[in-house]
Design a protein that fits this description.
Helix 5 packs across helix 9. It contains 15 helices and 30 strands. It has 4 domains: 173 residues, Immunoglobulin-like (Sandwich); 93 residues, Neutral Protease Domain 2 (Neutral Protease, domain 2); 204 residues, Neutral Protease Domain 2 (Neutral Protease, domain 2, Orthogonal Bundle); 83 residues, Pdz3 Domain (Roll), CATH 2.30.42. The strands form 7 sheets. The chain has a 7-stranded mixed sheet. By secondary structure, it is of the alpha+beta class.
Length: 602
């Protein structure tokens, strides 16, 4: 993907104005100096890279029109996300309104508190001219609520001061949409990781935020990851990086970009000044740092090392790959591992996090029906469109993918007596497929190349592992794999607790079944997801999940209880024979190890 020099080429020019904060409307224009003589086609992407679901962002375009030399130009709808303008003797300008009320990291959001957008939600693509330089003028809202707003983005400035409104430049359309924009009154701090400036932007009220601790901890994570991929030069793949973070009452999520990440978190998960610095496995701040570590690792693994299907992206349709277990699962393996290597958590806390992942994978019977390769391929229709039956039908390429990474790491370490590790495989992927991705005619990696690379770098024949655990549905032999490294995997349950084997949620003041696990007590008795529990043995079940646990705690495994539940508006009765809680109580304990074998966290 050879890049053009944006200053030597006529740019595709955009303006974006947060016009109506209360109405959540951005005004956007795109001007094309030399439109296609056959009639220029414009299209808004149907999905955003990193989130594998068709979202049809064009549905948020409210009004759209075109003009040239001050005169209207006919604009015809081609399909649900494309328009064709009548031929003109350029330039051509298309103006449109975008409704922005999606409080997530994937789309756009605008109100009196802040503005945020991903390029895929607001920038119409000029078909045939995506390779040209693109520039965007981000204008200040006229609303008094925005008088002190600033702009945060990793886009290079052209006619703007850093953090200011004005003009920003991108080498091409793919570059343009890979730099989300945050505007508002935000907390801001900057640190350098191996010489590269990294900005932390926090939007939302966070009383007594310990920004100094956040800077120090993120610096440790970033420097650890930079040194992981470039141990000699410690050269980062970007000139600047931005953590764009929206703090809310309750939220969690992130989306990776080539020089930034968009994050949403609970404000309670951000560090508070003058509190203990030690992190435990249940610490909300640890969860936030793990999220930051995950998205930052994507800077290498998926933003530059890519599956072949993503080079380039087809932004108008589903783009299938069976490799998300590598790009998301392996990133999930390394995110917490990097916290240990950065010195932020102990090995004990790390093993507790790993045990939690093992338990979550073993929880759903979907793991026996779908491989991580199939889960990757079916992300568009299954993983990102989960319903109440998901635990019984699918497996997560994130969580089981991270255990697949662990399996490969432990196997390679053990069979090579510690001479090779999964780290060596990741470095080879980076050197061959990622390092020069944006600087040369780069391409993505295929499934066959991935498997061949594992064998080449490790010196082992790993096809049986790919067949059984990547393309197959066998449970990973983790206890056997841990043993040579002095880690004992055990099921901690001493006495099984009585359980309905369900997941629940609140429905007003009531308790609603959100998932019924296959083969469990509720399933065998005939209860279904969506049923609202009314009573157990004529005692009311309140909406708080702890109330159900408390009631069940008065029984023993094997007891039969009478459950009254509403299905839709009909009251039904079920006789439920309580079974033991089948959620594995996984524990990982260090017992000592062969001195030749270092654990991955060492």
């Amino acid at each position: 993907m050879k890049k053009t020099n944006p200053k030597k080429q006529p740019a595709i020019q955009y303006t974006i104005v947060p016009r109506d904060l209360a109405g959540h409307l951005f005004d956007v224009t795109v001007t094309v100096a030399l439109p296609s003589p056959d009639g220029q086609v414009f299209a808004l992407p149907a999905w955003i890279p990193g989130s594998y679901m068709i979202r049809e962002f064009a549905r948020n375009i409210i009004r759209i029109r075109a003009e040239s030399h001050g005169k209207p130009v006919a604009l015809a709808k081609v399909d649900k996300h494309s328009w064709r303008a009548a031929p003109v003797d350029g330039p051509l300008t298309v103006s449109y309104e975008v409704y922005a009320w999606d409080l997530s990291v994937r789309a756009a959001h605008l109100d009196q508190t802040h503005g945020f957008f991903n390029g895929t939600s607001v920038y119409l693509r000029v078909l045939g001219q995506e390779h040209m330089a693109h520039q965007v003028d981000i204008q200040r809202p006229h609303d008094p609520a925005a008088k002190s707003w600033r702009v945060a983005t990793s886009l290079p400035e052209l006619g703007a001061k850093r953090y200011g409104f004005g003009t920003y430049i991108a080498a091409d359309y793919d570059d343009l949409i890979d730099h989300p924009v945050e505007m508002g009154d935000f907390a801001l701090a900057t640190f350098k990781a191996h010489g590269v400036p990294h900005d932390i932007v926090i939007t939302g009220r966070v009383p007594n935020l310990d920004m100094a601790r956040l800077q120090a901890d993120l610096k440790a994570i970033c420097e650890t990851q930079i040194a992981f991929f470039e141990p000699k030069s410690k050269k980062a793949p970007m000139d600047r990086y931005v953590f764009l973070t929206l703090a809310v009452g309750d939220g969690y999520g992130g989306l990776e970009h080539r020089a930034s990440t968009a994050l949403i978190c609970a404000r309670a998960d951000l560090p508070v000044a003058n509190t203990p610095k030690r992190l435990g496995a249940a610490d909300g701040y640890l969860k936030f740092l793990g999220l930051c570590s995950h998205e930052y690792f994507h800077t290498w693994n998926v933003k530059r090392i890519k599956p072949a299907a993503f080079a380039p992206y087809d932004l108008q349709a589903e783009t299938y790959t069976p490799l998300l277990w590598l790009f998301e699962g392996f990133t999930s393996y390394y995110d917490d591992l990097m916290l240990v290597r950065a010195g932020l958590v102990t090995e004990e806390a790390y093993l507790k996090l790993q045990a939690k992942t093992v338990a979550s994978v073993l929880r759903g019977s979907g793991r026996t029906k779908q491989s991580v390769a199939d889960s990757s391929f079916d992300a568009w229709s299954k993983y990102y469109r989960q319903d109440e039956n998901a635990p019984n039908a699918i497996v997560s390429y994130y969580t089981k993918g991270s255990l697949v990474a662990l399996m490969f790491d432990l196997t390679i370490r053990a069979k090579t007596s510690g001479k090779k590790t999964l780290d060596d495989v990741m470095l080879a992927l980076w050197q061959r497929f990622g390092r020069d991705f944006y600087a040369a005619e780069a391409r993505g990696v295929t499934e066959a190349e991935v498997e061949a690379l594992f064998d080449e770098i490790s010196g082992l024949k790993l096809k049986p592992l790919f067949d059984r655990y990547v393309r197959g549905t066998d449970d990973l032999p983790l206890a056997k794999l841990y043993a040579p490294f002095g880690v004992k995997l055990a099921d901690e349950r001493k006495v099984a607790k009585p359980s309905l084997d369900v997941a629940t949620g609140r429905d007003g003041a009531d308790c609603k079944l959100t998932q019924v696990h296959e083969g469990g007590a509720a399933h065998r008795a005939g209860l279904s997801a969506g049923d609202v529990l009314a009573a157990l043995d004529r005692v009311r079940v309140a909406g708080n999940p702890s109330n159900l646990d408390s009631l069940l705690g008065r029984y023993s495994v094997g007891d039969t209880v009478k459950v009254h539940a509403f299905r839709r508006d009909e009251l039904m009765t079920f006789n439920v024979k309580l079974m033991g809680d089948r959620v594995p109580g996984i524990a990982l304990e260090v017992t000592g190890s062969d001195k030749k074998l270092k654990r991955p966290s060492a």
